[in-house]
Amino acid sequence: MEHTQEGDRIYLYSITTVAILGGLLFGYDTAVISGAEKGLEAFFLTATDFHYDKVMH
């Protein structure tokens, strides 16, 4: 089976694009969860029907 340089280049760009998008989405998701975390922690610390501590967090 013969590979062309153009086909190899397209394959390399495709893999690189998927890796870049994966990293960007992971970072975005981490930032979104981090932003909501403080609000949820404040809500659960004021709850009176159960005990919430740092281990559960």
Written overview of the protein:
The chain is about 70% helix and about 0% strand. By secondary structure, it is mainly alpha-helical. The N and C termini lie far apart (about 55 Å). The mean pLDDT is about 85.
Helix vs. strand class: mainly alpha
Q: Write down the secondary-structure element order.
A: H
| Structure annotation, total helices | 1
Fraction of residues in β-strands: under 5%
Low-confidence stretches: none
Helix content: over 70%
Mean pLDDT: 85
Rounded to an integer in angstroms, the radius of gyration calculated over CA atoms is 22 Å
Could you tell me how far the N terminus lies from the C terminus, measured between alpha carbons in angstroms? 55 Å
How many beta-strand segments? 0
Characteristics:
57 residues; mainly alpha
Please outline what is shown here.
This protein is an all-alpha fold and 57 residues long. It has one helix at residues 5-45.
List strands and helices in order, with pairings.
Elements: H1 5-45
